[in-house]
Amino acid sequence: MRFLPYTFLLFKIIFAQTIEHPQNSPLSVLSNIIKMEEKFDTEIIEFDTKWVDSLSLSLPCEGIPVPKRTMRLPNAPREYRNGIHRGVDFFANWGTPVKAVADGIIIRSDLNYEEVPASFRENLLRSSAKLGDTPSDIFNNILLGKAIFIDHGFELVRGFRTITIYAHLSHIEKNLKPGEKVYEGEIIGKSGNTGMRESTLGSKAGSHLHWEMIFQKGNQEIYLGKGIPNPELYEMLSLIFKK
Ligand SMILES: [Zn+2]
Ligand 1 (ion): which residues have CB within 5 A? Predict the structure, then answer.
């Protein structure tokens, strides 16, 4: 029974710490960790237009403004993939120069993208329809086509890591590799229709720039404008770009 005095001593230390330093006691610290974990898992973030109140981005295609039509904006249904549109479809003809909307670091740059066969794309969409949803790997690797992702760190919007996505590109500037720094207004590629049905058939029809901004916090991510109805959505989007 020699351990008894040590057990007693340990309890005495914990008890004394709780009294003297209630915030720093082992029990208090442990309970805070548990509380934080619970908060993390249950608190679902919802997009708030206040996050982007002071944003001032360059348009990704010079002279091409944010479109007004709901179908070209975030939250529009995308029935061909049983999904919801997360971005903005700018009216950019095939080959229009595409620019970084803000300073950042390249995360993804599909320099060696090759279009997939039309039947493969169709089969993937058919299988996805049976699931009732398009899996994220198919969306990211097939449907976005030749794409660029830029990491803007925590600089753009306080409290969030922000990334921007430029999809369906026909061309990417040759030195643009992951890890490269890019600057606001720098040309990063050209618009196109890669990842779309028309591209798999060898046509340039349907070209546009699909652009997204994603906010990440903890293990969650949310797209710009999620849940915001039009015309409030259009007004918010047109205000975040410089005139
Ligand atoms: Zn789109």
Answer: 87, 89, 210
Q: Would you state the torsion angle of the CA atoms of residues 141, 78, 70, 194, taken in this order, to the nearest 10 degrees? A: 40
Residue whose pair of structure tokens reads 């028309």 in the numeric block? 198
By the 8 A CB rule, do 142 and 196 touch?
Answer: no
Distance 87 CA to ligand 1 centre (A): 6
Alpha-carbon gap, residue 168 to 145, rounded angstroms: 5
pLDDT score, position 30 = 58
**pLDDT beneath 70, residues of the chain:** 1-42
Domains of the chain and CATH, by start: 4-37 (no CATH), 49-239 (2.70.70.10)
Ligand 1 center–CA 8 separation, angstroms: 66
Map tokens 């899996």 to a residue: 135
pTM of the entire predicted model: 0.82
Residue 35 pLDDT: 55
pLDDT tens-digit map of 168-178: 999 999 989 99
- Calculate how far, in angstroms, residue 109's C-alpha sits from the geometric centre of ligand 1: 18
* Residue owning tokens 């600089």: 155
